[in-house]
Structure formats: C-alpha cells, structure tokens
Design goal:
Elements lengths: L3 H14 L2 H19 L1 H9 L10 E4 L28 H13 L5 E3 L12 H11 L4 E6 L6 H9 L4 E8 L1 H5 L5 H11 L9 E7 L27 H4 E4 L4 E3 L10 E4 L5 H5 L2 H11 L7 H4 L10
Parallel strand pairs: 1-2, 1-6, 2-3, 3-4, 4-5
Antiparallel strand pairs: 6-7, 7-8
Helix pairs in contact: 4-5, 5-6
Bound molecules: iron/sulfur cluster.
Amino acid sequence: MINIKNSKHLIKTILSKFTFHRFYQGYKYIKFLIYYYKNKKKINFYKSSYDPKETLPKVIHVETRTLCSGKCTFCAANILNTSRSDDLMHMELVDKLILELSELNYKGRLSFYNNNEPFLDKRILSIIDKARKKVPNCFLELKSNGKGLKIETVDNIFKSGLDCLYVNDYLDKENYKNKIFSKNVQSLLNNVNNDYSHLKKKIFFIHRLEDQILNSRAGTSPNRNSENLSYKWRCFRPFEMMTLSPSGNVAMCSDDVYYDEVMGNFKESKLIDIWTSEKYKKNREILINKNRNLINTCKNCDYIGYTLN
Ligand code: SF4
C-alpha cells in the first residue's frame, strides 16, 4: 500500500532538487537536441555541397555608428563600461555596401545595427531609404532600446521602407517582473495602439532585463565568467552571417563585439570576395567540425550555434 505521507515527502525532495537553474539548463539542452535533430540535413549540406557563391549570408549586420545608449550589464558595448570608440561609417562605404548588395540582388536580412543603438546615427532614415530603393528584396530589420525614440521617427522610418522594428526595453528587476515598460517606450506603445495603429504588425515591444545573464558573447560578456568554456559544439554562423564595422572590418559573428576575428576589410575588397575567401572557408570548416577551441573568439563561446531569422 502507498504511504501518502512518504510519497509527499518524496515529491517534496525531488522538487527541492529541481531548481529553476537546472530546469533552465535542461530546457536549453532539449532545445539544442531538437535543433540538431532537425538540422541534420543542414549539417550535411554545409559539410558536403555548400558553395558560398550560391548561398549568400542570411543576415548582414552593419554598425554604421558604434555607440550605444544602453546600460545592459551583459553587453561589452554598454555605455558605462565600453572600451569601443564612437566610430561612424563613411557614407561612401554605406553606399558601396548598398550598391554591391543591389548587384547581388540580396534577399536576406539586412540589419543596420549590431551591438549599438541604430537611432544614434542620425542618417539612419536615409540609409534605410537608400537600401529599400536599391535592394528591394532584402528584409530590413532594426532593433532599438527605444530610449528617446519618437513616434514620428518610427513612422518615418517605416515610410522609408523598414520592414520590422523590435523595441527591446531594458528594465530593472522590479519593472521587468511587473511587466512595466519605461515611460518613453510606453508612450510609443500607446501611440501605436491609437493614432499609429497602421504600424501594429511591424513593431514589437519586448520587456528585457537590463542585468540578465545571457550567453558569453564570444567571451566578452561583462557579467558572465566565460573562461575555459571550450564547448564541442558546431556553429553555423560563418555560413550564415556577416557583421560589418564602421571602418569596414568584416567579422563572421555578431557576438564578436571588438571585431577580433576579421575576415577582411570591406573598404579594400568586395563583400562577395570576403564571403568566398579562404579565411571564411577555413573558419567554416573549423566550426562545422566542432573545433571552437581553434578560434580565439569562439573558444570562450557557449552560443548554441545557429542564427535565427
Ligand atoms: S562559435 Fe560563438 S563566437 Fe564563434 S562564430 Fe559561433 S557564435 Fe560566434
């Protein structure tokens, strides 16, 4: 016969060991397994018949100005601690990029931001406008922290041709827990719910925690100890992503905050030549074969290794 008192004790003991952290780790692991199961074909493709000339990057990130106004403790580009200088991409370089993507009839995601706040570049509306006109089939997406952002600017950037805007509102613990947006973001949301309802399907407001501990961000995350991680995981990013700095340096990964692993310089070379270069090829081979430890920016990285669209 089942002893109810003992059973209750057993359940209590199991639950006490099943901490949220373990649950979260388990969830991440299951997600990881599902992902790899689903992507067996993709792995085979990348290993055997991938040709970068035929398959352009799914995502191109461009930092037209490096500055950020956020104070997120998980990001090395946060305004309180960053050692990055405030650099601006010359407009000639922006034009060169747009022209080359136009010639390639680029159809992937073109994001004029990375570890920065895109609206701090006052040219962002005209950049989006140019990109829309010259690269009509790309998907233009921006992410902003919403600080100081005005609804008129948001409306105008969509008129210029932006497809999608995420407003990530980085909050303290209390407001994050209670799902309370900051004043400016709430005002944007009110506007979208009323006079600017035509933007509803294109703009997304997200509560984020300012001091969240995320992945190690290629070993750069200030609030995360990422020494000696050495994960034996594949990474698809060099097959799917390019990240451009204002000086034209091209990194293979958006987590490479300091552009340490440079694939080439876009001022000096064509984007397609960098994408099809020996250096990119070598890094693809290394990362599809799970050898993160062979690349400096990757050896302290715990990112799951795929790129969301
Ligand atoms: S292993 Fe990490 S740092 Fe390296 S390319 Fe992949 S996500 Fe970026």
